[in-house]
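Hey, quick one: can you model this chain's 3D structure?
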Amino acid sequence: MSEQSEHDFEDRLAQVLRRTGDGFRPDGPHLVAAGAARGRRRQRRQLALVAGAAAAVVAAGGLTAVLLPPGGRAAAGPAAGRSGGPSGAAADGPSLVSALAERLPAGVRVLRSAGDWSGVAGLRVAGESAELTLDDGHGAGLVTVLVSDVRGRQVKSGCPLSNSSNEVCEVRPGPDGGSLTVGAMDPDPGPRGTGTAAFTGPDGLRVVLSAYSFADQEHQDRTRPTPVLTPDQLAALAADPVWASFRSGLSPDDPSAGATLGPDGSPVRLRELLPPGLRTASDSEWAGGQRLTAAQDGHELVLTVRAQRADRAARDWFAAVPAGADGVRMRATTAREVPGSQGATESAVDVLRPDGVRVRVTAVNPAGAGSPDAGKPPLLSAEQLRGIALDPRWAAPDAR
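Sure thing. Here's the predicted structure for all 400 residues.
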């Protein structure tokens, strides 16, 4: 693959996956970072353009992260009081973080995690993703997973996985007639710092797992000689039948397909809805949603909002809860534990407006093993999440 065609492929895949809103640090492992070490980091990111992983975590979450000033407006506004109170669970079904964490080798600690849930009335997305920072006693390393529906899409497969001369790669037969591409690579001679396994099933289910020898996505300073999971371990995980349980939550028809942001972006900025004291470290925006990472006094928050027009399954799901005086229906979950995460918790508020637009806001405390924040609720309360969800400026992509 030429360099130009590789970039074309990356751009096309980024446009598809960006619309799912499913990456948890928009400045993820595959974006090229600015700074004095840009050349080296660019090489490492190019080596991660693996069978769809080029945009697996980054594009799903949105655009390149930037440093921003702290938000200055309280989340809960007057509109919050007009709606009926939270009722029912905001999401059901499996968690990508749990699915991966529960299949890790014995003794591996989960230091940080954030990822997607699938539910009976989940938002329609083409891909779901998660990231975990792991430690096997020899240093922390990042692992990412993307599960997507690629029916009708052209996706790169086979070897080579990168343009590095320091790469090993092979294609193996996968279960149920699928294909498994497994490789490891690095821009430098010596230990290979990136490993990837990509499984593509005959039904269009695609699973991409990548492991890195760094723990910090932004700076990518090497924390260990090789990734915390070997290529063979990644291959076994990618071929695991557990990912089929996410199949029903995926759709090749992305509801934001063809949608674009206006010249000024969204009419509302998620960071503007944060209460005082929370400082935004990075954020991203795509047609149909926004995500940011924020902190207060060293405590981290991952906050996501998604808006789309509710389908019949979603409308039926919301019909089980009473509407408020303003016609808004709401479901919520507060500080639920993420199984297998060793400490991460999530709160979610999901609202259905009378105009048929569904807005879902999730707040994650990503802290895991060894963190004093493990097991604590996310920084924002359900009432604050409700205030964000009820901002009338949120619009579904097809409403722009």
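One thing worth noting: Residues 3-62+125-249 form one domain.
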